[in-house]
Amino acid sequence: MTDEQQNPEDDLRTRLHAMETKLRRMKEQRNSFNEDARRAADSRNALQEQSKEIRESIKEKLDEQKKVRDQAQVCKAKRDEIQKQIRELINQNKGRRDDAKESKSVVVQLSETIREIEKIENTMMTDGRLILETENKLLKKLKVLITKRDKLMPSVEEFNMINIDIGDMDGSIRLLKSEADNAHQEMIDFHKKADLIWEEVKPMLSERDFLRAEADRLHAAYVTCRESANEVHENMQELINQANELRDEMKAAQEERIKVIKDHNQSVKDALKKPSEDEEMADSLASHLLNSGSLTLGGALNGDSSSVKIKSTRGKKQSRKLGTARGKK
User: Fold this and answer.
1) Tens digits of per-residue pLDDT, 68-107?
2) Sequential DSSP letters for 5-25
């Protein structure tokens, strides 16, 4: 086979080898991206689990703080109500307020209102994910609740428990002031306790925010690695399709080459056959000789007495004479 016939196939084989080498490198690169993505996902999940535990601890602390703040609000409301009574006495308002007092459900309503106010305040103070629209809604709701709380406080029966002696106005005022001071001190103590709880919460919030930021960073890294791996995989698929097309082209060229060699060998074999090995040629020659009417056997020259000439007697019948030959006398 000539060089011109070999070169195209060699070129295809070289290109295929280059594609396979590139595919191996791309596969290693894709696997590397996938491994990086897996490590980033594992680290992200671990941080998210830690963040979940911290959020649960923060919630427990904030719930505890909320209860303390609620107690402080009750003390504050009691103090304010007592101070109001003191002002009434000072203004020589000798009559009590209308005996038609609110039922106990008002106290429950006030407590619920105070808790809701604390909840909104804590949310606005601790949740850094609030968007402007949500924050505005919370502010509007907070204003409504504060107005409701201020309307309920004067009507709460719990804050009007001190009996006032009208005949001893100064003694009643001193008693009220003492009760107001006690309520105020209780309120301060509860707020201090709540502040101590908040001091415990603050580092937990910082750690939560740090873990959240790290988890977000690792998630972004995971997404980037996965996208890179997918991009390399898509390029691999395209290159694989090209390699398959090249293999089909090589296979077709090889089949064509085999067919050419086979046809060439068969033509050479046919050309080298002897007449005796070719039945078709032998039958043709025999038929030709028989039709020519004569056939000379042997290698003698013309005129040689030893040569035997056979003539065709086809169509003629020679008679045979019967009798004995006479010998010499």
Assistant:
1) 999 998 888 888 877 877 776 677 544 444 443 433 345 4
2) HHHHHHHHHHHHHHHHHHHHH
CATH architecture of 3-102+156-249: Orthogonal Bundle (1.10)
pLDDT of residue 194: 92
Measured distance CA(62)–CA(68) in Å, rounded: 10
Residue appearing with tokens 């009507």: 155
Q: Which of 191, 48, 62, 220 is nearest to 126 (CA)?
A: 62
Structure tokens, 6: 């070999």
Find the helix or strand (DSSP H, E) in which 88 lies.
Answer: helix 3-90
Determine the angle formed by the axes of helices 3-90 and 105-126, rounding to 10 degrees: 140
Residue 300 and residue 183: Cα distance in Å, rounded?
Answer: 158
Largest CA distance in the chain: 213
Determine how many CB atoms are found less than 10 A away from the CB of residue 46.
13
Residue 36 phi, psi (nearest 5): -60, -40
Question: Which tens digit of pLDDT belongs to each residue from 154-173?
Answer: 665 555 445 555 456 677 77
Q: Is the dihedral of CA 96, 102, 107, 113 positive or negative?
A: negative
Query: What six digits make up the tokens of 153?
Result: 């406080």
CA angle, corner 308, sides to 302 and 309, nearest 5? 80
The sign of the CA dihedral 297, 298, 303, 306 is negative
Integer Cα distance of 13 and 93 in angstroms: 112
Distance CA(30)–CA(25), nearest Å, equals 9
**Residue 85 vs residue 246, higher pLDDT:** 246
CB 156 within 8 A of CB 110: yes
Residue 325 main-chain phi, psi, to 5 deg: -85, 140
Ranges assigned E (strand) in 174-320:
294-296, 309-311
**Amino acid at site 143:** K
Residue 244, H or E segment: helix 169-271
